[in-house]
Design goal:
Length: 466
């Protein structure tokens, strides 16, 4: 009888024979995976959470968790992908046949997230266009300006958000349809450097404004009185989301990695890039609020959509060259969201192509159908379907809660369990290239005990918040 190790190796040989196309360079892979990690989470969630949970204390916890648990979970997913050379369903099946169902469960996450992420991506496109043309009601100098009224009337309008949603989804799917090398890798190599330049440029601009230093202090200087268990939990939840863990993405991207590239250094670069970007986003948003708003604390308490689509535009209106800065900012958000959206759609496409044995184009058409149906529902949840809600949550919030607070922690825990209890404990460390017994031991303890316990805490708090 073959042992688990042999089954995995056997299946991997078969897979290599099929010559699956992947990333052609390490830099292409790192940029694409970082593109996935850097997204709306960095831009609107990290700065807000840092501001709420004691500034520097939160950032410190986040960094500590990133280099420990975050890094290990990233190694885990990338190594599962590369070892098996398959998308999520095939990956779990190859690891341990009786856990193929975890692959299906994992696939549900991107299927839920991709549509509503495109809806928000559509709002970003709308705002970019509006700043470029100087839309009435949003941009100063165009009659009466009220950013809250502008945003709410845009959302409750039935067809306009749908058009922008379809534009964003279409751009994503067309890029993915071109394949890993010609679509994803090529676009990442173009978009990520532009993203970095725009972000650093905006940060320098904001930091040169009066009073900006107050914001920097608020963001980075630790206020230990605000430290609590919740700070750690919030930092951990944000970390997993930000690294695109438990969405099937890193397993899929790992499966396209070249065998000779080092997983450890790639994962390290992705972590550094993602964290750096989160901090730069904080150094744009928080000092900008302190410079240009008379009530910075109230503004920063407005998390999520309201901060990005109502409060920040107000600030752009108060800034010299605000229209240009606003357009640049939304272009930046658009690129960040696009590279994330590409990765989440790829996770679905890879699984469909392999398990449904279909061509990439056919898989793209099917995914377009799913994205349109669920995306239209999420979008109309702000308009004609606003009567559908659970508690305070509309359709988009329900999808978001289901994916982030329930399914993702469950998938992450199951991934750790399968990888640490049901397969030979040397397989993944060997794939990662961990040679020293101490590093292997550390990796195994983290995925066996530490990570599942921490994730279970996140799951429980999420459920209690219901
Ligand atoms: N890491 C992403 C972010 O910070 C999360 C994400 C990835 C969401 C891919 C959707 C798709 O926004």
């Amino acid at each position: 009888m073959m042992n688990n190790n042999e089954i995995i190796n056997d299946s991997v040989t078969q897979n290599n024979n099929e010559k699956r196309k992947g990333f052609t360079s390490k830099i292409g892979f790192v940029l694409a995976a970082s593109g996935s990690a850097v997204g709306l989470g960095n831009l609107w969630r990290f700065p807000y959470l840092a501001a709420t949970y004691g500034g520097g204390v939160f950032v410190f916890c986040y960094l500590l968790l990133a280099v420990t648990i975050g890094f290990v979970l990233l190694l885990l997913e990338l190594s599962i992908g590369r070892k098996t050379g398959k998308g999520v369903i095939g990956a779990f099946e190859t690891l341990c046949t009786k856990f193929k169902w975890v692959g299906y469960l994992c696939l549900i996450v991107p299927i839920i997230i991709a549509p509503y992420y495109s809806v928000i991506g559509g709002w970003v496109v709308k705002y970019f266009v509006s700043f470029v043309v100087g839309s009435e009601g949003l941009v100063a100098g165009s009659g009466e300006v009220n950013t809250a009224v502008f945003f709410n009337s845009f959302l409750s309008n039935s067809y306009e958000p749908l058009i922008y949603f379809v534009i964003f989804a279409l751009i994503t799917i067309v890029i993915v349809a071109f394949g890993v090398e010609k679509g994803i890798e090529k676009m990442s190599k173009i978009l990520m450097p532009i993203l970095a330049i725009l972000a650093v440029g905006l940060m320098i601009f904001v930091l040169c404004q009066q009073n900006a230093f107050e914001g920097v202090k608020y963001f980075l200087v630790p206020d230990f009185s605000k430290f609590s268990f919740e700070t750690v939990l919030a930092a951990m939840g944000q970390l997993f989301y930000s690294l695109s863990i438990a969405m099937g993405i890193m397993i899929t991207y790992g499966s396209y990695m070249k065998k000779e590239d080092k997983i450890t250094s790639s994962a390290m670069q992705i972590c550094v890039f993602d964290t750096l970007f989160a901090i730069i986003a904080g150094l744009i948003i928080i000092p900008a609020v302190f410079s240009f708003s008379s009530s910075p604390y109230t503004v920063l308490a407005e998390q999520g959509p309201s901060l990005m689509f109502i409060q920040l535009p107000q600030i752009f209106n108060a800034i010299p060259m605000g229209r240009l800065i606003g357009a640049i900012f939304f272009l930046l958000v658009f690129f960040a969201a696009l590279t994330s959206s590409i990765s989440i759609v790829e996770a679905i496409i890879a699984a469909l192509c392999e398990n449904g044995k279909m061509s990439r184009v056919k898989a793209c058409l099917i995914v377009s159908g799913i994205v349109v149906v669920l995306g239209v529902l999420s979008s109309l949840g702000f308009g004609v379907l606003d009567f559908i809600s659970i508690g305070e949550k509309n359709i988009l919030d329900i999808f978001d809660f289901l994916a982030n607070n329930i399914l993702m922690p469950i998938v992450a825990i199951l991934t750790c369990i399968v990888a640490s209890w049901f397969i030979d404990k040397n397989i993944l460390p060997n794939e990662i290239g961990l040679i020293k017994p101490s590093s292997k031991g550390y990796f195994n303890i983290m995925i066996r005990y530490v990570a599942p316990t921490c994730i279970a805490l996140i799951l429980i708090t999420g459920l209690l918040s219901l």
